[in-house]
């Protein structure tokens, strides 16, 4: 589904930076910003890993020296083409289905330290609220790391809850990075393919919105407001939030919540606390959600909430 987009992005990159030559960090400025960001992050991580293996003594020298050594890293000619193709494919997957794309950055088995998980999540230069959720959840649960399934489940539930709360402006904020990236591709001057856009809605638990666009060849940015104004169909509303392992979680309409919600009762899940801590009134938008996650009150709510049963979470992820 994403191959036409990722192939077009790779071709654009090779038209600006030759596939048979080495390329340092500075060259990446010529690429679309999101692709350049992902490639910089991966080059930086690879350079650190190789430097630590080849010259472990560098870790004991002043930071400036180490930073200078890493700054000189470049993609070898033999690695440039596969790196661009892999990053292009992953980037579209991450913009459309972030929970799946981010989870596969972790090993298939075992736990990855939380700091490393957060570092890898920075490969995506969009949706910063996801990393904030992961960090808050780890702090509250006193987690030292994440396995692939736990991370996928956590991010998926957060995105489903976000999709249930977004208004038209919020959806446009969520879709802007995808449209900006597709807008750089000469082969897609008119917008995002309808099937791809439908996958964005489905990944946030809103298949009804996807049904309105899945048969369209492309959906322009200008056409989005009318599509979003129609709202999801009843099947999307029913599927917008996956089942919660806790039967005690309240199901009241968010619009009925008081303007200053009380601390959550034991039994509510962590993702619900994150979303419920956003400012009430108008449906939360992405900036509002990110601000709420950094808000001291939200942090206190997370710290005070009774821990969820990890076995329940794992059981639901498997079902």
Order of helices and strands: HEHHEHHEHHEHHEHHEHHHHHH
Strand percent estimate: under 5%
Number of strands: 6
Give the strand line-up of the largest sheet.
1-2
Summarize the structure.
The protein contains 17 helices and six strands.
SSE topology sketch:
Blueprint: H1 3-16, E1 23-24, H2 33-54, H3 63-71, E2 74-75, H4 77-96, H5 98-103, E3 112-113, H6 114-121, H7 128-141, E4 145-146, H8 148-165, H9 168-182, E5 192-193, H10 194-203, H11 207-211, E6 218-219, H12 224-230, H13 234-239, H14 270-276, H15 286-294, H16 296-304, H17 310-318
Antiparallel strand pairs: 1-2, 3-4, 5-6
Structure description:
This protein is mostly helical and 319 residues long. Helix 8 packs parallel to helix 14. It is built from 17 helices and six strands. It has a two-stranded antiparallel ribbon. Mean pLDDT is 76; it is low at 234-319. The chain starts with a helix and ends with a helix.
